[in-house]
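Lecture notes, unit on protein representations.

Consider one protein chain, 124 amino acids long.
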Amino acid sequence: QVQLVESGGGLAQPGGSLRLSCAASGFTFSSYAMSWARQAPGKGLEWVSGFYSDGSDTYIADSVKGRFTISRDKAKNTVYLQVNSLKPGDTALYYCAKEGGPSMSRDYYGIDYWGKGTLVTVSS
C-alpha cells in the first residue's frame, strides 16, 4: 500500500535550517507529482512546494520563495524540502502529499495520499 513517511522536523531558531524528508513507497514514484503542504496552528492548509512527475515544472509558494527548495532522489523514492532562513511564521505541521496523477493540482481534492506530517517549530 502507499506510504508517505515524513521526517526531519523539529525545533529551530529563527534564521536556522532543516531538511525535511518524505520516504515514499507502494507506488511508481517517478509517475506522480509530489507536493509539500503545511498547516500552521489555527490556519488553513497552504501549498508550499511541488513538482510534476517528469520534473518539467516546480512550484514554490511566494511566502517561501528564495528560502525553501524542493528536490527528489528517484533512487531512494524520497522527496526533500530544504528549509532555510526559518521564520516564526514557518511554524507548522508539514505534510508530504502524492498527487493523483503526473501533474500538480495544488488542490486538496487532487491529492490521493497524505503523510502524517512532521512538525517544524521556529522559536528562539
